[in-house]
Amino acid sequence: MPKSLALALSLFCFANAGAAAPAQEPSAAPVLSGTVQDPSGAIVANVRVLLESSTGAQLQETSSDSTGSFHFDQLPTGSYRLTIQAPGFKDEVLTIKLGTKRLAPLRLTLSLATRLETLTVGGADSSPQVSTEVSQNQNANSFDRAALDRVPVFDQDYITTLSRFLDDNTVATSGVSLVVNGIEANGPGVPPAGIQEVKINQNPYSALFANPGRARLEITTKPGTPDFHGTLNFLFRDSVFDAANAFAVVKPPENREYYEGSLTGPLGHDRHNTFLLALERDLDEPEAVVSAIGLTGAIQENVPAPIHHLFFSGRAFHELKNGDLIWVGYSYENQSFGNMGVGGTVLPEAGYNVSFFEHEVNFSYRHAFSNAWANQLRFLVGHYNRRQTNRNEAPAVIVSGAFTGGSAQRDTLFTEYHFDGTDILTYAYGKQLLNFGVDIPDLSRRGGDDFTNRLGSYTFADLAAYQANTPSSVVIQSGNAHQVFLEKVISGFIEDTVRVSPRLSLSVGLRYYHQNYFHDDPDNFAPRLSFAFAPTAKGKFVLRGGAGLFYDRTGPRPIFDLLYFNGVNLQRFILNNPPFPVTAADLVGVPSSNVTLDPRLRIPYRLHYSFGIERQVTAKSTFSATYVGSRGIDLFRSIDANAPLPPNFSSRPDPLLGQDRQIQSDGYQKSNGLELAFRGNPSRFFSGQVQYTLSKTYNNTTNIYWFPANSYAPAADWARSDTDRRHKFDLLGSTHAGDLFTLGMALSLYSGVPVNVTTGADNNGDGVINDRPAGVARNTMHGPGLINLDLNIAHDFRLSKEKKSPRTLTVSLNSFNVLNHPNDVTYIGVIASPLFGQAVAAFPPRRTQLNLQYKF
After folding, report:
1. CATH class of 31-117
2. Which of 208, 215, 203, 257 is nearest to 234 (CA)?
3. pTM confidence score
4. Could you tell me if residue 24 is left (phi over 0), alpha (psi between -120 and 50 degrees) or otherwise beta?
């Protein structure tokens, strides 16, 4: 039996043994369950639910899930007191009498609190309590709709704003996992106004998800409501109110107009049928700033880079009499980008345009078979099309560390018909909650047309080589550019969460992973374990820890490479010291380059683990200190298996083959960190989340496209990770000054990531421009840090006198990078460049944004 499977089964048996107390109540024991919603009918997730005896003694505590539901099982008959607590709402207290007859699920509607009781950063997680629930870790980050409306969010981009709490060093080849209503997706499926809540790192070792919590962003979208409610947003920004860009001679004339809104209400006269409509229209006119150097000196100019975006989403909901919920939705998205890639050392002529559209249909069905059994089915089908076109048709010219011109040589067309789905069966009995099911993150038909490098991409070591017309290397492609394939990524999972005692909860899970095309190993079992333990019955401390294996996946591009560059379809030629330009005669007898898989390759995996302590600081705030470690094992990388032989690098071992890019799984990564986090409402005037991380990450690969500087000595690339930041501090929160205004704040203080020092030439003839000077290790230069402060000041104008959901106009003024700190992002590491050790690009300077929001 595979070791990982044996370990998982042992843990699973242990968890069940701990729960199998002989004094369990009979299966007919009463059950108390229900759903929590706000006055508009929208679900309220992560609400604290307390169950007390008739005398006030606390018996159990839980939280409403992402559907607003909660559940208490195996209760003796008798009288109970149920308390629902959520910031921004009045506490709801009910007296419940349980008899032998089954009690129908409750539907609880919370009432809004008075103005002085309302807290700005909402959701139960902004008023947190330390808990022995394994899913209630206090180093998570969670923002509900009220919180998202009060903190500074640039251009309504909530995903980017909250991604600051992700850990770059936990993100695998497949990238950050975006989970929408429980299933992986390419995007949120709704405009920002349709988002109800965003979470990061909730239940980090859950077997229900492919990625760990620090590489996973979970979005819950708004449901329909039985009464009409809506939100309208207007955003305006113009560079006349902004500071000047540090690398621009003349301030770029930028502006943006953004319109967005959502509407929910009943479908017809039946309040069990509801809908959600959302629309976004974005007209953004930014400019890229070029800061390069050519033969005649510095090149500095501003280049328009327009971004236009249209997004529409519609959903219909039907609630059955037995409490089941069905909804179906459709969304359409269309976006275009002009002059992509331009900026820094990339000249306007090397830009390219991008356009994409996507149609998507979503379906969800929640069914309760009984008080103990429930099923949640969610899936989506979609069609995606993305095209890239060069602005200019010419060979690409890359002068290392100086400028990139000529053409982008990026013509491509990719299409996709995809299916993503999850089916989770839940069984709740006594002290146990069992989840098991099937997850299909990607089942897709993908087509691709790759016309890149048709005219060649020429690399010159420096300006002198460019002036002398002597390139170091060139890459040219020709042949069959069209490929179609079916990608299949399928997982199965089982997870058992057990409340062993009121002071100890344990979760044990197992996930199986399969991806085609990559010699899939039958041993791809990923065990997960997490626990929460309170040392004393009434203490304010909780010890929490966990560990889990997480398998990587490649994404579609490496599969395209394997199909394209097989020596037959798409021919790729790499020439060292070629003439400029190369003619067809120059390619006669030149062997083509291939992409192959290492016969020993297996799917990489990462071991993540943590242990920490959580303490209740005030009634509505917590502090946590957590050690976080990870090990990346058998990580993807590429080498040239036919690299020219040292010491002269004059010939390849197989002269009939060019570069043999062999995809391997021999990389390794080691990461250790200390994470300190504060969450909640220390006073009625402030609410927020603060996180500081001290960490160190080393590796010898970055991703599946990574080549070592020397393919015969890949271990020499062991060094600081490209994303290694020793210090990372983030604050996101708001303060409330009575009826006057709300002030939202986002502060980020980061140390720099390293910069790799290279020669700028292909000294060893392997076709990869990443050679380092003799004796210089990888990532030895220290890169720039970051200091960024964003502010949002807002005032609510109440336009009606209703106590529940009054019509409100909110006027807010946002300022991003208030300190106007020059946050450089691109350092030149090419040692022969006149710009060596200098920055050529930076994050934007101070910008001002006006937001108008109307709610009814």
Report:
1. mainly beta
2. 257
3. 0.84
4. beta
